[in-house]
């Protein structure tokens, strides 16, 4: 029997606010345990939650970015369950009336051994505001577990998809696209190691061609795209083998062990009615007006797909180049600055995606930490364009900029890289080369084109690489008759 995997994602995005979802306590990462666990976060008697306006604006931003329905009225509910890291005994979330409704996200699934690259539309069911729970800490004291409530109350936006994905590759492509988007619009720092972007993956399998969904198991808290790929692939194979052996899939929450590469059941999966949701009596319904949406929209950056189209139409870049340059906002901003500083767009794109990217990757630096500023790269490209230096010399200048040896012109002068463009000087070099290489001249005149390239090489060697290659070609042809 052939099987089909069905995947949906629930992603918890920590919102970039200085204070918590319902209190003024700090959200700074790395503080000593329980130093940011305020009275509201642990629901001491007599305290009241107050909604964080910045968190609401972040949710609206996301809704606008995915062309979603944004509710004019949404409600906060209490999600009741007992767990050691939830001292209140409930989590404030949204259930029946979320702030962000149905939206969509177009993803690009990369090519694989069995398929070419393709685009796919993933439908987003909802995105709702909620607060985070605390964290169980094991092993801080030998033989004991502790509770750190610093995260309790941290603002989250939970983004839920339809079960639209049919492979681990599609799920990872969606997660990466979402990861890029929330950073692009400035609502999340995207730091997966610190828990700012966590994915729960619902996986089920069914006979190929069937419209009936199988029983799903939820893989919790995946904080790496690599682990997501491995977890889905293992879970899919485990479910198929279980069914083919005559077994049944029990709905469950499972964990992924990166060391073994396996998933294991943690507990049976709760249903919504297990949480006994009811409207939070301490919080009024959230009202979002058209004016609110317009105000947030005015503060949003140009979205990746819009910027990509502009790069194609305004700068005449290929779709591939435009897509690569808009994969991250920091890269797009750097490229735009290079062009605005006077560089030719295609040449700027080639250098940003080529030499700069290679150097950043080799040293594991982000483009925001590049030793070569965008205006410096633009100055370098202008010196190539006005024939002050050759492309080969430009590589040496780039290395000098990276090492902090000064500005572009100073490095060119110090290294003696200025290109010879004086016609008389180049003609003199060519004349010497022709006189010393009569055999090559004869071969060229006998119709051997390779001899011409060899003569060009000799001219460049004689000029120590400083002669303008285009002029060398033009003058050499002229002098050979």
TrEMBL record:
InterPro entries: Asn/Gln-tRNA_amidoTrfase_suB/E, Asn/Gln-tRNA_Trfase_suB/E_cat, Asn/Gln_amidotransferase, Asn/Gln_tRNA_amidoTrase-B-like, GatB, GatB_C_1, GatB_Yqey_C_2, Gln-tRNA_amidoTrfase_suB_CS. It catalyses: L-aspartyl-tRNA(Asn) + L-glutamine + ATP + H2O = L-asparaginyl-tRNA(Asn) + L-glutamate + ADP + phosphate + 2 H(+); L-glutamyl-tRNA(Gln) + L-glutamine + ATP + H2O = L-glutaminyl-tRNA(Gln) + L-glutamate + ADP + phosphate + H(+). Keywords: ATP-binding, Ligase, Nucleotide-binding, Protein biosynthesis, Transferase. Its EC number is 6.3.5.-. One of its GO terms (molecular function) is glutaminyl-tRNA synthase (glutamine-hydrolyzing) activity. It holds the Pfam family GatB_Yqey. One of its GO terms (biological process) is glutaminyl-tRNAGln biosynthesis via transamidation. It is an enzyme of class 6 (ligase). Residues 333-480 form the Asn/Gln amidotransferase domain. Belongs to the GatB/GatE family. GatB subfamily. Heterotrimer of A, B and C subunits. Allows the formation of correctly charged Asn-tRNA(Asn) or Gln-tRNA(Gln) through the transamidation of misacylated Asp-tRNA(Asn) or Glu-tRNA(Gln) in organisms which lack either or both of asparaginyl-tRNA or glutaminyl-tRNA synthetases. The reaction takes place in the presence of glutamine and ATP through an activated phospho-Asp-tRNA(Asn) or phospho-Glu-tRNA(Gln). This is Aspartyl/glutamyl-tRNA(Asn/Gln) amidotransferase subunit B. It comes from Methylophilus medardicus. The gene is gatB.
């Amino acid at each position: 029997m052939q099987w089909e995997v069905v995947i949906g994602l629930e992603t918890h995005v920590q919102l970039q606010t200085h204070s918590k979802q319902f209190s003024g306590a700090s959200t700074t990462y790395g503080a000593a345990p329980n130093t940011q666990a305020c009275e509201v976060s642990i629901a001491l008697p007599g305290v009241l939650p107050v909604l964080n306006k910045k968190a609401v604006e972040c949710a609206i931003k996301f809704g606008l970015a995915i062309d979603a329905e944004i509710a004019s009225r949404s409600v906060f509910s209490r999600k009741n369950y007992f767990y050691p890291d939830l001292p209140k005994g409930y989590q404030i979330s949204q259930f029946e009336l979320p702030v962000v409704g149905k939206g969509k996200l177009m993803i690009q699934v990369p090519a694989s051994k069995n398929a070419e690259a393709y685009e796919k539309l993933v439908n987003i069911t909802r995105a709702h505001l909620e607060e985070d729970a605390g964290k169980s800490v094991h092993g801080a004291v030998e033989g004991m577990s502790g509770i750190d409530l610093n995260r309790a109350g941290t603002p989250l936006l939970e983004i839920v998809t339809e079960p639209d994905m049919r492979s681990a590759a599609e799920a990872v492509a969606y997660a990466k696209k979402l990861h890029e988007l929330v950073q692009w619009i400035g609502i999340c720092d995207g730091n997966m190691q610190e828990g700012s972007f966590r994915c729960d993956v619902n996986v089920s399998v069914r006979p190929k061609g069937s419209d009936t969904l199988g029983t799903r198991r939820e893989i919790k808290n995946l904080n790496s795209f690599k682990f997501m790929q491995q977890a889905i692939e293992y879970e899919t194979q485990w479910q198929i083998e279980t069914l083919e052996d005559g077994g049944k899939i029990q709905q469950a929450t499972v964990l992924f062990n990166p060391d073994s590469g396996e998933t294991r059941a943690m507990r049976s999966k709760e249903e919504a009615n297990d949480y006994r949701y009811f409207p939070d009596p301490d919080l009024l319904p959230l009202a979002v007006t058209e004016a609110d949406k317009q105000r947030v929209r005015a503060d949003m950056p140009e979205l990746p797909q819009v910027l990509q189209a502009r790069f194609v139409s305004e700068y005449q870049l290929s779709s591939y180049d435009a897509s690569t340059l808009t994969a991250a906002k920091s890269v797009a901003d750097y490229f735009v600055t290079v062009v605005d500083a006077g560089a030719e767009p295609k040449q700027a794109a080639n250098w940003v995606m080529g030499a700069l990217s290679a150097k950043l990757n080799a040293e594991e630096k982000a483009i925001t930490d590049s030793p070569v500023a965008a205006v410096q790269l633009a100055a370098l490209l202008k010196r190539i364009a006005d024939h002050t230096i050759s492309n080969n010399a430009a590589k040496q200048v780039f290395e000098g900029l990276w090492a902090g040896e000064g500005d572009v012109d100073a490095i060119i002068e110090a290294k003696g890289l200025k290109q010879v463009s004086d016609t008389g000087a180049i003609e003199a070099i060519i004349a010497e080369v022709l006189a010393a290489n009569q055999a090559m001249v004869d071969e060229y005149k006998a119709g051997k084109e390779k001899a011409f390239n060899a003569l060009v090489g000799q001219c460049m060697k004689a000029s120590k690489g400083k002669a303008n290659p285009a002029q060398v070609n033009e003058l050499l042809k002229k002098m050979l008759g």
